[in-house]
Design a protein that fits this description.
single chain, globular, alpha+beta, six-stranded mixed beta barrel, 20% helix, 32 strands, 475 residues
């Protein structure tokens, strides 16, 4: 019996060695998988523009769904004669104007409204702002239906388009300007209608009156504006999705930086937004996915029919006027949780906005983000800042790059990984920048912008009081 002990001991030690080896291998695999989840390695060319339209095969073929295209991309029907692409400096200037106007709107006393007189002129003051207005959808208006390309905007409520006869002024747009006199379903709204008075909250201006017809006016922070008759009309989203008696603005005096779009579709929370007007049909649920590149397409869908099962929701926070408020709790970079006190985000608050380009963070949070991101990107040479973006790299000597995943932790235990295209903003290979920016003060409202939302399905369930996110919503 004793003679067999060495063999047993040898077998035992071999077994122990084997178990330890397997355990070590499994641990190494888990660690490498975890590391892979926290970093992305990809071709540098994936950040650069393409001249060929490559429509997304994901998500857009649902009931109540419109195709979303980037106004300046190859999938857009806009010509360069109609729409002059903005420079990077212009994009960020418009973006800052929008951010400033959102802050001003949130700080405005709702009882202090401007009144439109019979001359229907607007004061030259800061109002809403359209920003860069890059994402558009095409809808049909009137009978017979006329197709119109509209900027879609979660930060606006009133839907409007330019209308013939353009009594004062119309800017150049891609499609023929809508002529209400040629539609059999158009009706003006009277000044005495309760719907007319609803314009106060939707536009920030008390409506005017012209020959007993209600007159709306809305101005934007960049001095763009639209003034015209308030009417109702048949709105066609798809052949099976038609909204009769849709209230909208029929613009007779329109000026500004709308870049060839016929107008705007308002997705805010006010009673005149398309979300509220179609509540009986779609239950105040809509979703969109913004394409990862201007050469691809996304979608805007109304109703819960197209909402996937992999959506994770975060509660809507206290209503910020007609904006969609969310609770941001924290962030991580490459799996490293940033040392940011939760009180920092509680102090600022946060909204999600389809029209703001670059996400704005409290300076304390941005400083932690930038410092950690730089620490994990030391193999790449830093270069000069790009306007509001101060963490930029010269990648001209690289064909592939590895970048850390930025994760945002929202209320309701919902974590959202930002895609690589939502992490970096490229102004050519010599200037590729972290696509986040600091606010001026920790008390300024934070904004989750559209670059960071790229290719994520974003679901707004207004009735349910929540916003959801799902990866891989579109290409």
């Amino acid at each position: 019996m004793a003679s067999s002990n060495p063999l047993i001991l040898l077998l035992s030690s071999c077994s122990l060695f084997f178990v330890l080896a397997v355990a070590r291998k499994e641990f190494t695999l888990e660690a490498s998988e975890e590391e892979a989840n926290h970093f992305h390695t990809l071709q540098l060319s994936s950040f650069l523009p393409s001249s060929v339209c490559n429509p997304s095969a994901i998500g857009g073929k649902k009931s109540g769904s419109l195709e979303v295209v980037h106004k300046h991309g190859p999938c857009s029907k806009f010509t360069k004669d109609t729409v002059k692409p903005l420079t990077v400096e212009e994009i960020f200037t418009h973006d800052q104007s929008r951010v400033d106007s959102i802050r001003a709107k949130l700080a405005t006393n709702p009882l202090n409204k401007d009144t439109l007189g019979s001359k229907t002129t607007l004061p030259a003051k800061s109002g809403s702002t359209i920003g860069s207005g890059n994402y558009i959808v095409t809808v049909g208006l009137g009978t017979p239906k006329k197709d119109l390309s509209l900027i879609f905007d979660t930060g606006s409520d009133l839907t409007w388009t330019q209308c013939q006869p353009c009594a004062r002024s119309c800017y150049s747009q891609q499609e023929p300007i809508f002529a209400p006199s040629m539609s059999t379903t158009y009706t003006n709204i009277s000044c005495s209608s309760t719907y007319c008075s609803d314009l106060v909250s939707a536009t920030g201006n008390t409506p005017g009156c012209s020959s007993s017809t209600c007159v709306y006016g809305i101005q934007y922070g960049d001095q763009s504006f639209s003034v015209g008759f308030f009417g109702k009309e048949k709105l066609t989203l798809t052949s099976k999705d038609v909204v009769d008696g849709f209230f909208f603005g029929c613009g007779q005096n329109n000026q500004g930086l709308f870049g060839g779009a016929a107008g705007l579709i308002g997705l805010g929370r006010d009673k005149l937004s398309i979300v509220s007007q179609t509540a009986n049909k779609y239950g105040k649920v809509f979703a969109y996915c913004l394409p990862s590149k201007a050469s691809s397409t996304g979608y805007l869908t109304f109703g819960s029919g197209g909402v996937g099962s992999n959506v994770k929701y975060t509660p809507l926070s206290t209503a910020q006027n007609s904006f969609y408020g969310l609770d941001l709790l924290g962030m991580s970079v490459g799996g490293t949780k940033l040392p940011i006190s939760s009180s920092v985000f509680q102090t600022s608050g946060m909204i999600i906005d389809s029209g703001t380009v670059i996400t704005r963070l409290p300076p304390t949070a941005y400083s932690a983000l930038s410092k950690t991101f730089r620490a994990q990107m030391t193999k790449y040479p830093l270069t000069k800042a790009l306007s509001i973006l101060d963490t930029c790299y010269d990648l001209s000597n690289f064909t592939t790059i590895t970048i850390p995943t930025i994760t945002m932790f929202w209320g309701g235990n919902t974590n959202v990984d930002i895609t690589p295209q939502g992490t970096l903003y490229a102004n050519g290979v010599q200037q590729v920048c972290l696509a986040f920016a600091p606010n001026g003060d920790d008390s300024d409202i934070g904004i989750f912008g559209n670059v960071q939302q790229k290719s994520i399905a974003v679901v707004y369930d207004v009735t349910g009081g929540k916003v959801g996110f799902a990866p891989g919503g579109c290409a």
